[in-house]
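Changelog note: in this version the structure field was regenerated for every chain. One regenerated record is shown below for reference.
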Amino acid sequence: MTEKTRRSNFLTDIIDADIAAGRNQGKVVTRFPPEPNGYLHIGHAKSIILNFGLGQQFGGRTHLRFDDTNPTTEETEYVESIEADVRWLGFDWGKHLYFASQYFEKMYECAERLVKEGKAYVDSQTQEEIRDQRGNFDKPGTNSPFRNRSVAENLDLFHRMRKGEFADGSCVLRAKIDMSHPNVLMRDPLLYRIRHAHHHRTGDKWCIYPMYDYAHPIEDAVEGITHSICTLEFETNRELYDWVLDNTGPWSPRPHQHEFARLALDYTVMSKRKLLQLVNEKRVSGWDDPRMPTIAGMRRRGVTPEALRDFAEIIGVAKNNSIVDISKFELAVRGDLEGRAPRAMAVLNPLKLTLTNWPKDKVEMLDLPWWPGEPERGGSRQVPFGAELLIEKDDFSLEPPKDWKRLAVGREVRLVGACVVRCEEVVRGAGGEVAEVRCSVIEGSLADPKRKASGTIHWVHATRSVPAPVRLYDRLFSAANPDAGGDFLAALNPDSLIKVDGARIEPALAQLEPGKHVQFLRLGYFFTDPVESKKGAPVFNRTMTLRDTWAKPAAAPAPERKPEKPAEARPAAPRKSRSEARDAVRAASPELASRYQSYQQQLGLSTEEADVLTGELELARYFDAAVAAKAPAKAAARWLINDLSGLVKDRSFDGLPLSGATFGRVVAMVEEGKLAAPAAKVLLANLVEKGGDPEQRIRELGLDKKIDAGVIGAALDKVFKAHAAEVERYRAGEKKLLGVLIGATMREVGGAADANAVRKALTDKLG
């Protein structure tokens, strides 16, 4: 991982300190240790990204290890699915694939040693008796009547347990620690239990299996793990982790356990038991149902590994548990698909539109770009246009509201990529429903894209479009906390899957192969189902809507009350400050209030920055889109508040030709030293007015004009003199200052230099 993309959190701080202190000979070895008893979900994805990311960041390695110590719940199917999920996320364990079952003999030897040293004993009580004697946080436990068995007797019984002489549950091996220990887990914990069950790898060789808390530290130690990263619920287990290592060692390197907050996502359940229940009860179609939070389900829905990594970066690594707003995940997905999915047209709920002044048999093939906002990206397709078209029923209204911008009798709209039409009449069906709208083409509007209309709607040809099954997926649960009522099944969202059978798509879309992304204009991001799609017969899964349809609108202001006295007789009400006005808006909008907190706690923004950015929903969403596009949050906030807001003035952020994601790309370029701040200000002013691709605008504005090495060298001399302290700190090891020095050099040349040339010259001069 390069210095400019190096991530910092409390775990990286721990590893930095370990390396600085010379621990583990400077090595960093992490592991991802799933139990193969189900499919991985989004919480596991966060752990995978974290563990493999730390290995990469510090030039170490990460092991994939299956914790297969419970033969009754584990299957080879799950092993294969987990391997596929980790690879799909973009990580490779190389030769470091391990199974806990590889170490069964070593674990047994360690357990024998504990018995011989009087640190473990065989307990012949039932599970219920052991549980009752353990006590609780307020009450110490009581010793087992078998706790003082002799070493010889314990060793004999343990050997006989291995030989299979005892039935399941008849006895266990326990550590002999302290039954009055304040940590209940340390009250003579179980180390081995009897399971006469076939193991998916070792077959029937073993009938005793180690408990997780005993096996886990030994696995880490045998593999040379340096940093054992666990979720926060294992914090109390750390004491037992250390006891096992201290009493079975010495180990070199000696692993150490560190905990981080696991992912808890609202509108979601991630209990393997509950996910299995959904599958077994056929509430979903399987582990890879696109509504499931499993990695397999998200992959089939069209979520990309890049979106999951972006989401992990947005939420960061925390020390304390909290519930993450699912809109952050959806924001990361939208931000990723915005630049990935080409645009095309589909009509899901068709209404016939007839053009009365277009020749009935004339079909014109329109050449429309896949990227209408960025035609320079290249590629187009042929779209048939004729007298008989189909539009969305929702795009026509018999009684349009005041702000209606779509089609109604007497109204004009532009058909995407085509002409402006005026609705002249409505044809009703037998039941009185609107069956057809008849329109006329405004002469010359096909060749005049600047011809104004009240709005723009999408369409397809009535007969030359292609039918295709479309599935509209949404959140699986309709309650933020599905477990709140005690029955999570009662919170299932009945509209989490809507099958659309009458949809029609452009002919070009019928040729999409399985596993391809596309944006249906004005409808959402879609994905050709990789399981059921066939060449020439795609099935489309909606990955995500274009906007957050679950966001609660701010409460409408109360109607103004008429004064009881003449205005001049009443004292003027004190005018609210802007901050007070924003406070009032947040009080009426839980979504903005949540963002106000998360911007400070998770993104590190100041109170003032969070206040400004959450004063209105569209501004907050614009900022979120910038962060999802990999702009550093602090930098995006600074540029948005100090520079872009002044350029936008009174306009709506929703209507800007400069999208939040594109703005984020510009900020990222500045932070990476690819674009000087003065040049960025020129670029933003241009993009606010004209839109387009930032890289192309940079070229058009001459902001990428190359200057010779002599000018760059002179600029570097000035920068080194003005930033002598930063130069020394960089040479002393603070490599993150490279971006600072690049930015200073780019500012010195007014942005008129190739950033790569500046980087090379700078690194050469720094030595």
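Spot check on this record: DSSP finds 24 helices and 29 strands in the chain. Confidence is low (pLDDT under 50) at residues 1-5, 554-576.
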